[in-house]
Amino acid sequence: MRFDNYEPGDFYDELFVTKDKPRAEAIPLLERINSLPAGELQRRHQAAQIALMNMGVTFNVYSEGEGTERIFPFDIIPRIVSAEEWQSLEKGLKQRIFALNLFINDIYNEQKIIRDSVIPSELIESATGFLKPCIGLKPPGGIWCHITGTDLVRDRDGRWYVLEDNMRCPSGVSYVLENRRVMKSTFPKVFESMTIQPVEEYPSHLLETLLNLAPPQLYDPTVVVLTPGIYNSAYFEHSFLAQQMGVELVEGRDLVVADGYLQMRTTKGLKRVDAVYRRIDDDFIDPLAFRPDSLLGIPGLMEVYRAGRVGLANALGTGVADDKVIYAYVPAMIRYYLGEEPILSNVPTYLCWEPNQQAHVLANLDKLVVKAANESGGYGMLIGSSATPEQRQEFAEKIKASPRNYIAQPTLCLSRVPTILEDQFEGCHVDLRPYILYGKEIYVNPGGLTRVALRRGSLVVNSSQGGGSKDTWVVCK
């Protein structure tokens, strides 16, 4: 396979400027691929799939109440970002996370942004992620969003936009690390010849972030990863990160509140736990504070957390910032809290709870993407240009019945990356999810998870909707 016949099309291509002109940072990779003997690239692609399968890189898809474990699809043609461009993205992500953290801390405490009429109080109070039991919380260091996965997209003009913020339990970083491991063995000579920024330091940065949460003056804090269990869609990641950090992977039944502390059951008795990387949603983490029917959480955890005897990442209540209606106000938050202009722009967004904007959305459903405020994974979404009239009418009724619950955005011409489909290169649409850690400082892991729409012509990159992933290389010339 060669790139001689590859056609970038009328999209921003991450590796090519035009059909015969590759981007400068991609030239060493493309030359290496073009030099391979016939059939060699396909053999390497297949070997990469087998390697990931042997490593158990899986996720669960839920259908009709049953979980099906699948290998996460992977394409060996990477996305390449120049170091100069990455520097700008990194700066923008740090600015955004800093402002979002100030926002979350504000709305659970002084609520100045509401009093100053920057964001309507009814939007906060009606957000499903706004948790009244969290009012007055003071997490360690005033940090709420310790681990964030921010979804970015690039439009036809090459400009980056923030698609959404993921601040509850963002997943996917394990695929970043495992993809890189496979790529190093797939293209060892390319890695020797190019300066590609490493991603392998993420687990050590994550552990440092979690240790920073533990109550002060502890000589040897105990950190755990709290998982809902083996049937969770991201269980591979939970176990992988625990193993990489060298900490215990626990379920709710392994923990108990005793003597005013969170403690872990061990063969030698109870052991105090000081910091928890939770992969359980807020509503299920403490049946005494939230859902009383939850069997996943730990009764009494909220009381221990309020008392400052255990750290949680992310802090409870951060899900309010995942609300897609609240997302529309992030540029205003940056201006309000930081007095700065946003470095990264939002995708233009229509708020269906506002009558004039709702009327525009209803009149243009065939041109817009409609999203439910609190859905993820490609669910609760209408891509108007590819929907049937019946589907558009169904969403119109949903919007009119619950306008607070919907936003709409223009259909972006997402950038593409050459991808192996049926033994040929085709441009497939991609997004990018960098991972940001907020401990003593804000750290952005170089690159992130490039998700790719593996269904020909599709704009949906989510793994649950047929998407896969690529390695992301941040390279210096």
UniProtKB/TrEMBL annotation:
It comes from Chroococcidiopsis thermalis (strain PCC 7203). This is Circularly permuted ATP-grasp type 2 domain-containing protein. It comes from the Bacteria. Coiled coil: none annotated. InterPro entries: ATP-dep_Glu-Cys_Ligase-2, CP_ATPgrasp_2, UCP005522. Transmembrane segments: none annotated. Residues 78-453 form the Circularly permuted ATP-grasp type domain.
